[in-house]
Amino acid sequence: MGKVLFCSIVMSFSFIAYAKQDINSYFYDIVFLNGLTLADEAIDQCDIEHDGLSDSRIAFCQVFEKLSGKSISLRIYKNKLYETIKVDELFYSTYSDEDFSLHEINAYTKSGESFKAVIDTGSFVSIADVEPNLFKESFSFKLVYRDKVSAGIALVDMNTDIAGIDNKIILTRDGFDSVLGVDFIGQYDQFSFYSDGIWIQPEDITCTEKCVSYDADFDGENLHFFYPLNGRIERVSFETGSPISTVPFSLEDRCIAEEIDFSELEKRGLDVGDEAKVCKKDFEFGDYTMKSSVVTQTSREIDGEPLPVMGMNMINAFDHVTVDMPAGKIYFYTPE
To answer: How far is 186 from 195, CA to CA, in rounded Å?
Structure first.
């Protein structure tokens, strides 16, 4: 039931809206959201529209034929902490003793290709520098946090240090820093981020006095939760691929005066203001108050709305953070 609910949410909020289900919309739904079971429907639509299709759309139809009958299957071992490679962010660590490290894992395909990838809940697609095997031509698309890029497509049986996924769609791009996005980690429904690893599908989620939960949503582009900030409920982008957190407003004190290069955040598609600074701000999670570094006047813009970003310096400060996709909740467990 949880998987059906998750897929329904994802399909309802596909990042490209169409008045009807045409070849192009099937392509994006299958590739970006990994709805492989849509392939047979897409083949039927290809037959209906065949005479009016361009060469590139006919190439898409050939991709659908290769996906026919495919589905995603998981090999999961519950109740196990999968250790991840800690990618230290030394740049921000020079200003604070917080843990800015990201989660990176080893991944490989049955065809023998291997790569390291950062688990990034700020990306709705997974991208790796592997050999395309579905669509030889490049096609253009826009990531949430990058400008429009060109890529190919691979269908791989992927194994990782946190469990295996069969028939995973990966976007391919030469020299690209590999990421595994929500289309990867979201297949597990429930997952917890610890400072040293990831716990897949907890059998039972309990929230006691050391825990506080917030409503969460994945809208097809962005995983976010709703947090009381500055007297109002704010939508916050939850991004394990960002080392530091951000807020879209200024702070008057506890800020670092010297200039800092924020080009790394700009590469993630964040809107960084001219007066952006690294500052300390208090955040309350139930009875727990966190003094966390944030980059001010910086935000993720979704649907024209500037969103604060929770990055790894805040996520790592908790004992663990659990995401429950089907229930639409994120649980924050405070340190002992």
So the answer is: 19
Q: How far apart are CA 112 and CA 212, in angstroms?
A: 43
Percent of residues in the chain assigned helix, strand, coil, to nearest 5:
20, 40, 40
**Is residue 117 within 8 Å of 164, Cβ to Cβ?**
no
Q: pLDDT grade, residue 310 (50/70/90)?
A: very high
The position carrying tokens 């169409």 is 18
Residue 105 Cα to chain centre, angstroms: 14
Residue 149's pLDDT band (cuts 50, 70, 90)? confident
Do the domains at 73-200 and 211-333 have one common CATH topology? Answer: yes
Label the pairing between strands 320-324 and 190-194.
antiparallel
CATH class of 73-200: mainly beta
The residue with tokens 């639509």 is 45
**Alpha-carbon gap, residue 282 to 311, rounded angstroms:** 15
Query: What whole-number distance in Å separates Cα of residue 35 and Cα of residue 20?
Result: 17
Residue 163 has pLDDT above 50, yes or no: yes
Q: Give the phi and the psi of residue 218 in degrees, each rounded to 5.
A: -115, 115
Reported as a pLDDT band with limits 50, 70 and 90, residue 146 is: low
Please check whether residue 36 is in contact with residue 134, taking contact to mean a CB–CB distance below 8 angstroms. no
Pairing of strands 232-238, 223-229: antiparallel
Q: In terms of DSSP H, where are the helices of 16-110?
A: 23-33, 39-49, 55-67, 90-93
- The Cα–Cα gap between 241 and 219 comes to 18
Domain spans, the chain? 2-67, 73-200, 211-333
CATH number, domain 211-333: 2.40.70
